[in-house]
Amino acid sequence: MKKYQLMAPGPTPVPSEVLLAMAQPIIHHRTPQYERLFGDVRAGLKRLFQTSADVLPLACSGTGAMEAAFVNTLSAGDTVVVVRAGKFGDRWLEMATAYGLDIIDLTAPFGHSVPAERLAEALKAHPNVKAVLTQHSESSTGVLHDVRSYAAVTRGHDAILIVDAVSSLGIADLPMDAWGIDVVLSGSQKGLMLPPGLGFCALNDKAWAKARTSTLPKFYFNLAEERKFLMRNEVRFTPAVSIIVGLREAIRMIEAEGLANVFKRHDRLARATRAGVEALGLELFAKATPSPALTAVMAPRGVDSEKILAAYSQSHNITIAGGQAEMKGQLFRLGHMGYAAEFDVIAALAALELVLADLGQPVDFGGSVRAAQKIFAEKS
Ligand SMILES: *Cc1c(COP(=O)(O)O)cnc(C)c1O
User: Fold this and answer.
1) pLDDT of residue 168
2) Helix (H, G, I), strand (E, B), or coil: what is residue 186?
3) Do 209 and 135 fall within a single domain?
4) Which of 154, 278, 294, 308 is the most exposed place for a label (fewest CB within 10 A)?
5) How far apart are CA 273 and CA 11, in angstroms?
6) Given 196, 224, 256, which residue is the final one in a domain?
7) Is the pTM higher than 0.90?
8) Does 10 contact ligand 1 (Cβ within 6 A)?
9) Are residues 276 and 357 located together in one domain of the fold?
10) pLDDT tens figures, 322-357
11) What is the CATH number of the domain that holds 136?
């Protein structure tokens, strides 16, 4: 028997408390019970998003939440700035292209980040820009973008800042109101320790003002319509009832630990993972601030990273992830977000040593584990 372990950068493991909560019989969504449940969840989501704005849950994957944020705030003929340095950043470009908007494309090589100064210059040169689209944690490269500085730039401009926080909500600090981010969107299957199937969108007043004049087509994802129901703790269409029940439990668990402690835990797990892989002589893919959600690692020279994934899976029943698009074969990604703890990192590193040895690489057994333990042994 090989115990299955999900260590991909999403979807992530779901704690038994949440699984058990979700195993309850389905309740109808037009009932007082659902309204009470939804009231609790709405309040909890505001605390997680660190905002006084409404957070709207949608039955969709994270990309659905990206699209909802996009079509509700933008109009035909609008110019948007896409700030991208990875696969998820590319998704914004693809979306803006699909909807026929004018695009100002600010890119950095994968593994890097676009400096806020470049955004400031672009907005100065193009006062007509309506929105800036970016990621907080870029899951394809393992980089955390400096959205706080991006927000400092957009605050003084008519453009709204739309941040994809799918792999940072409940992982890295992202105080929406304090930083002045106009739209934060996320999904259920990363930091929130839930199955895939929920997206979330939060819009501040500046973003809702754009929504009032937005002309891009929308029906299922019409957030202004959805919000009318939300105000009464109701939903417009059938919600993902079980995942909403799970969400109430996940919020309870996050708040029992304390949001600040949750961020600290992710930071420790990420530092230990980085120390571990570096102790094995491997190179991190992130050349800018690394994300606390996952660690992207370059495969050793001459080794196809897909072989590393396959060995994790076949020899150890552990799922990790590889490189996407042009990074396929070059890197592998270890997730340590959501329901992840110190000994999950130890297991991932111990398995990595066995995997590398199996692929004929020289390995100092215990070297990565020792480096991670040293981080965990540090006080606070
Ligand atoms: C996971 C993820 C998404 C959403 O992907 P879906 O497959 O649509 O849920 C979007 N952005 C980032 C940064 C992600 O990590």
Assistant:
1) 98
2) strand
3) yes
4) 278
5) 19
6) 256
7) yes
8) yes
9) yes
10) 999 889 999 999 999 999 999 999 999 999 999 999
11) 3.40.640.10
Check whether residue 105 and residue 221 sit in a common domain. Answer: yes
The whole-angstrom separation of Cα 12 and Cα 196 is: 9
99 and 132 housed in the same domain: yes
Q: Among 6, 63, 141, 145, which residue has the most ligand 1 atoms within 8 Å of its CB, making it the best to mutate?
A: 63
Task: Give the confidence band of 26 by pLDDT, cuts at 50, 70, 90.
Answer: very high
Predicted pLDDT at 325: 87
How many distinct structural domains can be found in the chain?
Answer: 2
Ligand 1, residues 12, 88, 163: which to mutate, most atoms within 8 A of Cβ? 88
Ligand 1 atom having least distance to the Cα of 190 = 1
Question: How far is 127 from 179, CA to CA, in rounded Å?
Answer: 22
pLDDT of residue 326: 87
Instruction: Tell me, using a 6 A CB cutoff, whether residue 291 lines ligand 1.
Output: no
Predicted pLDDT at 89: 98
97 and 130 within one domain = yes
Half-sphere exposure of 319 (CA within 13 A, CB side): 9
Tell me if 94 sits within 8 A of 239, measured CB to CB: no
Q: How many CB atoms lie within 10 A of CB 72?
A: 24
Return mean pLDDT, the chain. Answer: 98
CA–CA gap between residue 1 and residue 88 (Å, rounded): 36
Q: How far apart are CA 286 and CA 263, in angstroms?
A: 19
Residue 300, domain CATH? 3.90.1150.10
Residue with tokens 């950043």: 89
Ligand 1, atom 4, lies closest to the CA of: 62
Domain that holds residue 229: 16-256
The 10s digit of each residue's pLDDT in 58-70 is 999 999 999 999 9
Q: Is the domain of 216 the same as that of 269?
A: no
Long-range contact pairs involving 32-39 (C-beta distance under 8 Å, separation at least 24)? 34/233, 34/235, 34/241, 35/232, 35/233, 35/234, 36/233, 37/244, 37/245, 37/248, 38/233, 38/234, 38/235, 38/239, 38/244, 39/233
Atom of ligand 1 nearest to the CA of 187: 9
Domain C-terminal end among 219, 238, 256:
256
305 in the same domain as 164: no
Ligand 1 within 6 A of CB of 135 = yes
